[in-house]
Amino acid sequence: MWLQLKALFRREAEPPPPKQAPSLSSCKPNSWPVVYPAEETTRISRGLEEFLVCIQRCPSSTIVDMGGANQANVNYLTNLGHRLCSENLLQALDEICNTPNLSESRKISEFLEETLNYQASSIGGVLLWEGLQYLPATVLEAFVHRLHLLLQRDAPIFMVFHAEDRSHVVPTYAYRILDSHTIQLSPRGLRSRARTFSNRSLETLFQDFQSVKFFLTRDHFREVLIRR
Questions:
Q1: Please, what's the b/e burial string for 72-99 (b: 16 or more CB within 10 A of its CB; e: otherwise)?
Q2: Who has greater pLDDT, 35 or 74?
Q3: How confident is the model over 171-189, as pLDDT tens digits?
Q4: How many structural domains comprise the chain?
Q5: CA end-to-end span of the chain, whole Å?
Q6: CA distance 48 to 55
Q7: Domain-embedded: residue 97
């Protein structure tokens, strides 16, 4: 009897097995917004389609992809005759803008040097994807001003925004070009937006540019094409 009781207490004292981390698909609605895909998916993009038409008017251009190194995008755009330069906007934002003991002016200058270190009027197009909504106000205007300086006339900027304005925390994605009108989205995690943009606020922010075009979509993403 005594031996049976010891065995029973020993079993109860054993720690429970570790819990497995939930997959993206099993995240609760308050952590992963249900209106956005939690698994890899594809979507039709009229904004991308028009961006590609624009850059074909100026062959052999330098195109900047702000989503980081991406072999699918490199292959697609170089096959069109362009040169693709990859910049990781979010990584630079985390490394520089969140560094203590740096003045705001120093953070801005280092961020611009890290992400937009190009000659004036040398860029034929920018794939900004969803990056603009994460830039703090202190960086935002300087970033747009530098874009205006570096882009060639008529050069396009393609951007994607989360249309759900009530969510401060939104999913981030890696964007891969599959063909002239299809993008593959791969979830990378959740991130806090610095701000949301209305159509009017985007028009004001890019008032020195030639045009700001908005595309209607059937999902919870907004697409915008800016022309220098």
A1: ebbebbeeeebebebbbbbebbeebbee
A2: 74
A3: 999 999 999 999 999 999 9
A4: 1
A5: 85
A6: 11
A7: yes
Identify whether the C-beta of residue 62 lies closer than 8 Å to the C-beta of residue 117.
no
CA dist 199 to 44, 67, 111, 168, Å?
21, 23, 26, 18
DSSP state of 23: P
**And the tokens for 208?**
């020195």
Neighbours of 34 (CB within 10 A): 12
Phi, psi values for residue 196, rounded to 5°: -110, 160
| Measured distance CA(110)–CA(93) in Å, rounded | 10
Q: Provide the residue type at 40 as one letter.
A: E
Q: Is residue 218 one of the residues assigned to a domain?
A: yes
Whether residue 19 lies inside any domain: the answer is no
Is 220 in a helix, a strand, or coil?
A: coil
At 128, which CATH number? 3.40.50.150
CA 182 to chain centre: 16
